[in-house]
Every structure is written in structure tokens, then in C-alpha cells.
Design goal:
64% helix, mainly alpha, globular
Length: 291
């Protein structure tokens, strides 16, 4: 894909009188020289892989480190027992985000969306929306194009890897992508889509990548939950007409600058932040001894 700014996509939406997702679809068709149906078929496969990963969650499985596993099931149980206060939509999103992150840590099949470390954010929101609103697959595929277009611009202007820019570039980017997709699903226009993304990314600026034990497990999986819930709030604000005072492209640029300013210890090295706490160091020592 060729977009380097959100403004480019918005201008094409206006000039060609097309929706956000249609502009992204057209760009994919032009770049890969494929027909619309071939492009849509590939995007549908990605979405169905997310659904498959959610269905295949194993509540009994623990990661090799024994740091994570079973929390998705604990959340499900709390929902059934009516112990949650977040409501049916958000509580299910939380459960799915946990399950996807745990499946990743346990080496199950997942979809990097946009990275393995942030794999729970987009599926949790989109799958729950589809299930609870009986949305047709075609509409969900369109939402995937919206998310992809936003992710493409972030990748072009900044980065998606925690090693490059901290967790803001993984969970933050995923949150921005799905905030835009959710705004679209909930009736938002192109402007609403981009401001949902901008607000979601703004809220997570500066988020460090401090993997405990050097593993993408703690605190990564619970941060996926934060990214998913953050996206819902920002999509709702954008559809309500609330706008980011800082334009979307400038928010992405700020994320890049912040990421480049982060010390190496806070960029997926397992050397700083939570990884450097007493408990974090104890976990690291335990992992080293078992290797």
C-alpha cells in the first residue's frame, strides 16, 4: 500500500466520492494488481483467522514461563456470574483480548494485528461487535480495510514494533486502527474514523515496552485489554462529533518522536520499567535457571 498520510486518504475520499474503506481497497488493488474480489477474499481470510484463534482458545493451557494462561476463562466466568460492571460489550471485549494474548504466549495460531504483541486488540473489538450486533461478513471486511489503512499510515510515518518505539507503537497502533474501524461500523464518516484513531493513539502516547523476563506476556496481554477498551471510548467520542485538537498525522508524528526518545531499556529489551522491579528481576532469574 502506498499511503503516507491520513490526509491523503481523506482527500481521495472527497475527490473520488468514495468511503474510507473503498479508497484503501482501491489502493490494494492497484498496488498488487488484483481484482476487488481477490483483495476482499484475502482480507476475509485474515478476519476468519482471528475468529478461529478466538474459538480455539484453550482455558487449560499455560505459557512455557507459567506467567500467563487461564485469565480469559476467568473473565468469561465473571461475566456468566454477573460479577462485572463494564456491561456485556466491554466485558466480552476484555475476555477476548485476554484470550488472544494468552493464545499468542502459548504459541497457538494468532493474527499479528499489527504485531503479535498487540494481537488481542483488533480481534477483541471486531469479533465482539460482529457477534453482538449480527453484522454481515461484508461489513466486517470493510472495517478491516479501515483498520488496515490507518495501520499503513502509522507504519509509513512511524513504526509498529515495540523494539523501535515502545508499546505505544504496538498496542497504541492497534488501538488506533480498531478505533477507526469501530467508528466506521457505528456509522462514522471518514473524518470521524480518523479522529477516533487520533484520539486512541494520543491516549497511549509514551507507553513503554518493558517486557518482564523479556517475554511478550507481562504486562503485554493486559495492555491489549487497555488498548481495546480505549478504542471503544474513542470511537464513541468521534461518532458523537468530538475531534482531536491535534490532527491525526501530527499525532502519528508525535508517536514517532516519542518512540525515538525512549531509552533502549524501555524498548522491548526487558531491562527497564516493570522488568527492572524486584519481582520482575526474580521472574527473569527463574526463567534463566529453567533454560
Amino acid at each position: 500500500m502506498s499511503f503516507r498520510s491520513i490526509d491523503e486518504i481523506l482527500k481521495q475520499c472527497e475527490e473520488m466520492q468514495m468511503e474510507f474503506w473503498e479508497v484503501v481497497l482501491k489502493d490494494d488493488m492497484d498496488e498488487r494488481m488484483v481484482a476487488a474480489e481477490e483483495s476482499k477474499s484475502k482480507m476475509k481470510q485474515l478476519y476468519l483467522a482471528m475468529r478461529s484463534a478466538d474459538i480455539a482458545y484453550d482455558k487449560y493451557l499455560m505459557s512455557a514461563s507459567n506467567l500467563v494462561g487461564g485469565n480469559g476463562e476467568r473473565m468469561n466466568r465473571a461475566i456468566v456470574e454477573k460479577k462485572v460492571i463494564s456491561g456485556p460489550f466491554i466485558s466480552e471485549v476484555i475476555a477476548k483480548a485476554l484470550k488472544m494474548g494468552e493464545s499468542n504466549a502459548c504459541m497457538k495460531k494468532i493474527v499479528a494485528a499489527p504485531t503479535a504483541g498487540s494481537c488481542g486488540v483488533i480481534p477483541a473489538v471486531l469479533l465482539t461487535y460482529e457477534e453482538q450486533n449480527n453484522v454481515e461478513m461484508e461489513k466486517m471486511v470493510e472495517a478491516m480495510y479501515v483498520a488496515s489503512g490507518i495501520g499503513e499510515v502509522i507504519a509509513a510515518r512511524a513504526f509498529l514494533a515495540g523494539a523501535a518505539g515502545g508499546c505505544q507503537s504496538e498496542v497504541g497502533s492497534a488501538s488506533a486502527m480498531v478505533a477507526g474501524a469501530l467508528a466506521y461500523l457505528n456509522g462514522g464518516d471518514a473524518e470521524s474514523i480518523t479522529h477516533a484513531a487520533a484520539m486512541a493513539l494520543k491516549n497511549l502516547l509514551g507507553l513503554v515496552c518493558d517486557t518482564v523476563g523479556g517475554l511478550v506476556e507481562v504486562p503485554c496481554i493486559k495492555r491489549n485489554v487497555v488498548g481495546a477498551v480505549n478504542a471503544i471510548a474513542c470511537a464513541d467520542m468521534a461518532v458523537a462529533g468530538i475531534r482531536s485538537k491535534i490532527p491525526p498525522d501530527e499525532v502519528i508524528d508525535a508517536m514517532r518522536d516519542i518512540g525515538e526518545s525512549l531509552p533502549r531499556s524501555l524498548r522491548e529489551t526487558g531491562e527497564g520499567g516493570l522488568a527492572a522491579t524486584q519481582t520482575g528481576l526474580e521472574i527473569m532469574n527463574r526463567i534463566i535457571k529453567t533454560q
